[in-house]
Amino acid sequence: MRLRFDVSALFLTFSHLTLALSPLQEPIISEAEADCHNACSALVNELGASVFYSPSSPPPQSFIDTLYTTQQRALVSACIITPTSPQEVSLAISIIRRHSCIFAVKSGGHSMCVGASIAEGGITIDLSKLDDVTVDEGWEWARVGTGNRWKRVYEVLELLGRTAVGGRNENVGVGGFILGGGISFVSRRYGWALDNVRNYEVVLANGTLTNINQASSPDLYWALRGGGNNFGIVTNFDLDIHPQGPVWGGQNFWLIDPASISSRYSRLNITLPSFTFSLSSIKNAALAGVTKLACKLGYCLTSQQAFRAFRDVVLAEQNDVYAQMWMSYCYVHQIDQFLFGAALVYSRPEEWPPVFQHYKQMKSLYSTAKIQNFTSVFKEVADMNQIGYRQMWAVIAFKMDEELLEKIFDIYVVEVQAVRHVKDVIPAMVLQPINKDEIAIFKKNGGNCLGMEDVDGPLILLSVTFRWSLAEDDEVMNAMGNTLIEKGVEMAKERGAYHPYIYMNYANATQDVFAGYGEENRARLREIQRRYDPEGVFSRLQPGYFKV
């Protein structure tokens, strides 16, 4: 009898356990998850079709495809809201605040930082439907919705013979680009994007929709000029626009002389894998023969020639505000060669202006430079930055130092050996100047919070811009990028060339962007944030990057 009782009890216990684990029962979720699902339900009740809320389904592919990196594409939000008006953004923030749910705001989705545009398990506010572009009657400024990408803005303005100080890649979103600084092909003449904002229409932490400009709120206006996403959700920017016709420019590429790379290998004690007979080795041997011929015909550069030309152009363009450029280098695994590249843009229709003669004298392997509409230049940059890959970006700044560039290239040549095998790898490094004249424009309308002075220029931004396909290669790619940044900072400090500024739009999630603005500016930003957001809505509930 006792045995039967024990068995019955055991069966009853097992039945309860089975019932508890039944898929028909509601899963046990955390308090934070419950808060977010309650917030999503409230948003559905208030905004209906503007909210995608399907806990058992991924978001629409059309939404996923707008995200630049596959790291961000892997994140899943509790719900996604796509407001159709600033008033809906205001209502959404009020609901999110009431339920204490984490959130992220997406303009174009081009951020390299995981979680910057998508709130995993939280609420993603997708601003893509806030995409109006309205030009004032005098064609002096335009109201631009934060959900725009620069492609649409430029197309509207080009019909009027105007342009804005905006992204050089037409696929980049308006919002994050401007709030992070915004370097443009016309920044030598007009400053950065943040220097050309007359007024911000902003949803504050308490849900208030307001206009912020130098006259109405000079402190918050200053903070928004470089302060990122820490102070509110901008729904519209009133931007200065400028007369602009056709320009000259394009992309230019040179092979790096394999003989100079071989001597570098010897000096750096790099041993390449021994030759093995395969289709790949046959292809590389054939390409080596083609490269040798190209070098004999004058299409190859040494690193010394490339960095000297870069230095000479940086110095020459101090006297020509129509010139803007960047230089890059990259190991191309498909052909087992190193390449140098230069994007040259002159915002007048003049072929090979004197400022770029140092590059003209070097025979390029391939060039797209020509007189063309500005929109064509922006499209070309976008075409070279394909979406849907894994990305690692990071950036440092330093004074122009030709020898430092050579030393960093040494490190690159060493570190790239570890990623030769990585699928679809493009481990590019980009160098671009920040010139004295554009820094001087930072003082416009009460200044910005970036912490640079014109006496600092010209500065060089060195950017790690790595691309690859597989998550299994994340560790080796991130390790290479981190090594280049850490050693670059160390050597720049040793040579007295280091500058603490970190450009937000190229920064890695591990970098302390606001430390580079200076302690005085950081303290002022924090004080302004406490005043406008005492509950910490944009610091506590918005975990995305970067935080004051």
Give a written overview of the molecule.
There is one protein chain. With about 550 residues, this protein is α+β, with helices and mostly antiparallel strands. It has four domains: about 30-125, Uridine Diphospho-n-acetylenolpyruvylglucosamine Reductase, domain 2; about 135-245, Uridine Diphospho-n-acetylenolpyruvylglucosamine Reductase, domain 3; about 245-370, no CATH class; about 390-535, Alpha-Beta Plaits (2-Layer Sandwich). About 35% of the residues lie in helices and about 20% in strands. The strands form three sheets. Strands 11, 12, 13, 14, 15, 16, 17, 18, 19 and 20 form a ten-stranded mixed β-sheet that branches. β5 (about 135) and β6 (about 140-145) form a beta hairpin. α12 crosses α15 (about 400-415) and α15 packs antiparallel against α17. The longest helix is centred in the C-terminal third of the chain and has 21 residues, at about 475-495. About 45% of the residues are buried.
Task: Give a quick summary of the entry.
The protein is an alpha+beta fold.
The total tally of domains equals 4
* Radius of gyration using CA atoms only: 26 Å
What level of helicity do the residues show?
A: 25-40%
How would a textbook summarize the main sheet? 10 strands, mixed
Tally the helices: 19
GO molecular function: FAD binding; oxidoreductase activity
Protein name: Related to 6-HYDROXY-D-NICOTINE OXIDASE
Keywords: FAD, Flavoprotein, Oxidoreductase, Signal
Family: Belongs to the oxygen-dependent FAD-linked oxidoreductase family.
Observed structural traits:
Uridine Diphospho-n-acetylenolpyruvylglucosamine Reductase, domain 3, 20 strands, globular, single chain, ten-stranded mixed sheet, Uridine Diphospho-n-acetylenolpyruvylglucosamine Reductase, domain 2, alpha+beta, 548 residues, 19 helices
